[in-house]
């Protein structure tokens, strides 16, 4: 065998022996720890160390079970010890207490120390102040102040995130750093995407049915105004429409009452039972809308009760709508009949045939004006 080949074989055997000694703890006497000792070990490696207990010296084994980017799992004899960088753990061995501190994790190596006394105040703090806050990266629950790690991030509970892309369902709340399923928002509500809105239309950071959405004129461009009923921008002069005013009026308590007036009577006339002559009472409802200024509309509801068994009355409700402020005011005319009928509808005609027939009887029982 040539000399260079012999040298290579011998050198390889020496290296293998050194690796085996470090990895398995063999070869030479284990170090005696009298104050502190530093260790640098990879996952799967183990070493022995000695401690003086009373008059005797005991040998203990330390091994590295796993190494993570910011943590390492050690085992001293049979006791598992999970440490994060700069964290110190207290371990009792045969009545003697040692302090194990993880100093650094680098390139798969865990660098830690075993001391007989608690590290001084110069040691970085351990416990919650050294752990990751919500929104920070983590590997295990114990990395986090909240003790909850999900998707690689810390949060209080649920599926943690840093952005919407981290959520398989829903979106990311960047305050709590947790995924959530948003509730569909009504028109005028702030939004981030179409999926946020009941109308499936998010524009200009607000929900609306279509077009450019707004909450006030300041959200619209020059020459546009915000229709605060529809929550959408329109050209000056066309932003406030009769249709929008009527929709606003119909949404009020009195407007809803008037718009339902005919259908209530129609349903009541279909009910079985009751006095047939009462069912001859027929309401006629009409709505008229007129514009009184750029944004103010006058919506007039008029109805009459006609028929062989009804007093021929005519009652009027006026709702003034200001679309620029999204406000309404109500005025009644011919209130001798209207107030009584409205109160009866609100109190007695919530639903069902019995209430409907009772209401018709109430209408029939009103004294006809002379």
Automatic annotation (TrEMBL):
UniProt xrefs under PROSITE patterns: PROKAR_LIPOPROTEIN
Domain of life, per lineage: Archaea
Full protein name: Uncharacterized protein
Organism of this sequence: Fermentimicrarchaeum limneticum
